UniProtKB/TrEMBL annotation:
Record keywords: Glycosyltransferase, Transferase
Protein name: Glycosyl transferase
Domain Glycosyl transferase family: 178-336
Annotated Gene3D superfamilies: Glycogen Phosphorylase B
GO-annotated molecular function: glycosyltransferase activity
InterPro entries in UniProt: Glyco_trans_1, Glyco_trans_4-like_N
Glycosyltransferase subfamily 4-like N-terminal domain: residues covered: 14-162
UniProt KW Glycosyltransferase keyword: yes
Native source species: Ectothiorhodospira haloalkaliphila
Gene Ontology terms describing biological process: carbohydrate derivative metabolic process
PANTHER family membership: D-INOSITOL 3-PHOSPHATE GLYCOSYLTRANSFERASE, GLYCOSYLTRANSFERASE
Any Pfam family hit: Glycos_transf_1
Length: 363
C-alpha cells in the first residue's frame, strides 16, 4: 500500500510531529509513504528517511487554489492507493479536491475542536471517505454538525513514552534557564495563541505566588501573542517569576524535571503536550475543554472550568501544597498515557482506517 500524506505545518510539533510518528510506524509495517509539505518544513527532514519520496510545494493557505493542481500533479505521478490529508489551512479542502480529481480515495485528520458551520462541514467532508479525529470530543463536534457517524473515526494522538521516561537530571533546568535548583517549576507547553489561555494562569499567578513565592512559571512555545504576554507579565509585576522559553526541541530532558504542568486552554482538540507531560510522570492541571478530560480523566490530573481563574489558582495550590498528591497523579498519568496513547495504537488505528476504505485485504 502506498499512502500520500499532506502536512502543511512548518514546525515539528503538534500535528506535524504526529505525522512523523505515523509515517515511521507505517514504514516499519511495510507501507510506502510519500510526503507533500511546504518548502522548508521541518517534517521534510524528520520524516524523509521513512518516505519513498518527499515533495516540498508552495502551500499558501485557504486562498491558494493553485495547490489543487500542484498536488494533483504529484498524485498522478505517484499513483498512491490513498491520500491522507493531515492539516487544515487550505490543505484539507484543496487536498480532498485534488484526490477527487484523480479518483484516489482520501481520508482527512481533524485535530481541532472548534465548530464549523454545519453546511460547510457536511459539504467539505463529502470529499473524504473517512474523517479521523484525534479525540472523542472532536468526533462529537462533527456529529453535531451533521457529518454521518459511520464516516467519523476516533484515533487518538500518541506520544513516544520511552523518550520521556528517562527521569530528571537535576542540572537540566539550571543549565537551560539559569535556575538555582531551589525553585518550584510550573510549566505551560503550548503555542502562544489566544485559545491556549496563558492569560488565565498569569491572572492566577499573584495568588499562587503569595502562598508559594519560590514558584517559577516557564512558558514553552512561540506564537503571535508573545508581545501581549510579555506586557501582561510586566503589568502584573511577574517579570521575576515568568520565563518565556520559546520553542524547545529538548523537552524529553526538561519535562521530567518540572514540578507541575498547567494547561489552561479555552479549546483543545486533545493536548499532545499533556501526553508528553504524562509520559514523563508530571502531575497536571488542565481545563475541562475539548479532549483534555480524555487524558486527565480517571484521577490522572485535576480539571477546572475553562477561563475560571479562581478555580485554576485553587487547583494549582492544591498540588503545590500536597507532594503526595503530585506523586500519585504523576504516576497515574504515566500509566494512563502508556496504556491508551502509545505510538503503536495510533499507527495501527490509522492503518485500520486505510484498510476499511480500501477493503479488508489491503496490505
Amino acid at each position: 500500500m502506498t499512502v500520500l500524506h499532506v502536512e502543511a505545518g512548518r514546525h515539528l510539533y503538534g500535528g506535524a510531529l504526529q505525522v512523523r510518528y505515523l509515517i515511521e510506524g507505517l514504514s516499519r509495517r511495510g507501507l510506502r509513504n510519500v510526503l507533500v509539505c511546504p518548502r522548508g518544513a521541518a517534517i521534510a527532514e524528520a520524516a524523509g528517511p521513512f518516505c519513498d519520496r518527499v515533495d516540498e510545494l508552495p502551500m499558501g493557505g485557504d486562498l491558494d487554489v493553485g495547490f489543487v493542481w500542484r498536488l494533483r500533479r504529484v498524485i498522478r505521478q505517484v499513483q498512491p492507493d490513498l491520500v491522507h490529508v493531515h492539516s487544515r489551512r487550505g490543505a484539507d479542502v484543496f487536498g480532498g479536491m485534488a484526490a477527487r480529481l484523480c479518483r484516489v480515495p482520501a481520508v482527512v485528520s481533524r485535530r481541532v475542536d472548534n465548530p464549523e458551520r454545519a453546511w460547510v462541514a457536511r459539504l467539505k467532508y463529502r470529499l473524504f471517505h473517512r474523517v479521523i479525529t484525534i479525540s472523542q470530543a472532536i468526533r462529537e463536534v462533527l456529529l453535531r454538525e451533521g457529518v454521518p457517524p459511520e464516516q467519523v473515526v476516533c484515533v487518538p494522538s500518541a506520544v513516544d513514552v520511552a523518550a520521556y521516561s528517562g527521569g530528571c537530571d537535576g542540572r537540566v533546568l539550571c543549565e537551560a534557564f539559569g535556575l538555582s535548583g531551589d525553585e518550584t517549576v510550573v510549566g505551560v507547553i503550548a503555542q502562544l495563541i489566544p485559545r491556549k489561555g496563558h492569560r488565565y494562569l498569569l491572572e492566577a499567578a499573584p495568588r499562587i505566588l503569595q502562598a508559594h513565592p519560590q514558584v517559577r512559571f516557564v512558558f514553552f512555545g512561540q506564537g503571535p501573542l508573545e508581545g501581549e504576554i510579555r506586557e501582561q507579565v510586566s503589568r502584573l509585576g511577574l517579570a521575576a517569576h515568568v520565563l518565556l522559553a520559546g520553542f524547545r526541541d529538548d523537552l524529553p530532558r526538561i519535562l521530567p524535571c518540572l514540578d507541575l504542568v498547567v494547561h489552561p486552554v479555552e479549546m483543545e482538540g486533545l493536548g499532545v503536550s499533556l501526553l508528553q507531560a504524562g509520559a514523563a510522570g508530571v502531575p497536571m492541571v488542565g481545563a475541562r475543554a475539548g479532549g483534555v478530560p480524555e487524558i486527565l480523566g480517571d484521577d490522572a490530573g485535576l480539571l477546572v472550568p475553562p477561563g475560571d481563574v479562581p478555580a485554576l489558582a485553587e487547583a494549582v495550590l492544591r498540588l503545590l501544597d500536597d507532594p503526595d498528591l503530585r506523586l500519585r497523579l504523576g504516576g497515574a498519568a504515566r500509566e494512563r498515557v502508556s496504556r491508551r496513547f502509545s505510538l503503536d495504537a495510533m499507527v495501527d488505528g490509522n492503518l485500520a482506517v486505510y484498510r476499511s476504505v480500501l477493503g479488508k485485504g489491503a496490505g
